[in-house]
Write a sequence for this structure.
């Protein structure tokens, strides 16, 4: 079957818009086999759906990156495909533009309900669009399931690393508290103990504990009266700024990475050597096999 009859829409990571054609002509390019009036009708409809009708006479070089992204999606969808393939289509977008395009794509698919195969490294995009997730590692399936099962509660260390768990430690089970659904684990080569969710693991069992840097709270005075079960004293050993996020490394018997906003860093007056307490909820501790 020739490619143009396969009813598959595809958005390239590089978008691949024709630079010499206008937005309207780019969108109509895949409609050449249908009558001109229907071409125009379909193009008008998709231009309106993706809120780019005012750009119809401009060329790709004359519009913004977010607008080019909308044009590429519109060109793929104007043919009413039965399957849509998206290869990291929003990788270069800022957060606000990405959110608007995801809203438009979600609305379009709620109306059309076709399968979408979406390749991404972004957790936000997975949760915005994904119903089922497959994690690939070195060409093999490492995990599959719902976004929550795979990304928020990974069962394997390799998957946790792929989906952004910054703190992963060897640990052993030292006690179980079945009446409250928790157990206590000691992190390897340290005296640090964490209360974690209860698993079917015997005393002395070895496992791995993963904690996201963004799930840890930081205090410069010893917290009291909290529901969080894990409060660990330590000292700041480094502060590194990445755009609007600060990564603090805290030595609490093991080195943990914590994500903070710039405002939090400044209000806490954090500096190397300052005492700090880490606050970690029981269910922020994810238990994994190797």
């Amino acid at each position: 079957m020739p490619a143009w009859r396969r009813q598959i829409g595809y958005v390239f990571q590089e978008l691949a818009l024709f630079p010499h054609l206008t937005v309207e002509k780019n969108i109509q390019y895949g409609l050449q086999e249908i009558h001109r009036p229907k071409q125009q009708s379909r193009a008008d409809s998709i231009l309106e759906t993706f809120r780019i009708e005012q750009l119809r006479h401009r060329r790709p070089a004359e519009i913004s990156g977010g607008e080019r992204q909308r044009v590429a999606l519109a060109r793929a969808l104007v043919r009413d495909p039965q399957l849509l393939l998206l290869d990291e289509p929003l990788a270069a977008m800022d957060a606000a533009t990405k959110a608007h395009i995801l809203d438009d794509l979600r609305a379009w698919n709620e109306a059309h309900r076709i399968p979408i195969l979406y390749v991404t490294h972004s957790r936000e995009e997975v949760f915005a669009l994904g119903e089922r997730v497959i994690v690939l590692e070195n060409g093999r399936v490492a995990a599959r399931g719902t976004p929550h099962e795979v990304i928020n509660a990974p069962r394997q260390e390799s998957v946790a690393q792929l989906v952004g768990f910054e703190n992963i430690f060897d640990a052993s089970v030292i006690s179980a508290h079945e009446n409250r659904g928790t157990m206590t684990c000691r992190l390897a080569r340290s005296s640090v103990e964490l209360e974690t969710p209860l698993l079917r693991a015997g005393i002395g069992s070895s496992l791995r504990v993963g904690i996201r840097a963004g799930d840890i709270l930081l205090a410069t005075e010893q917290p009291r009266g909290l529901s969080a079960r894990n409060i660990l004293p330590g000292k700041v050993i480094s502060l590194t700024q990445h755009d609007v996020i600060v990564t603090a490394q805290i030595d609490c018997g093991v080195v943990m990475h914590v994500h903070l906003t710039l405002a939090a860093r400044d209000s806490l007056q954090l500096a190397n050597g300052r005492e700090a307490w880490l606050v970690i909820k029981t269910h922020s501790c994810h238990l994994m096999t190797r």
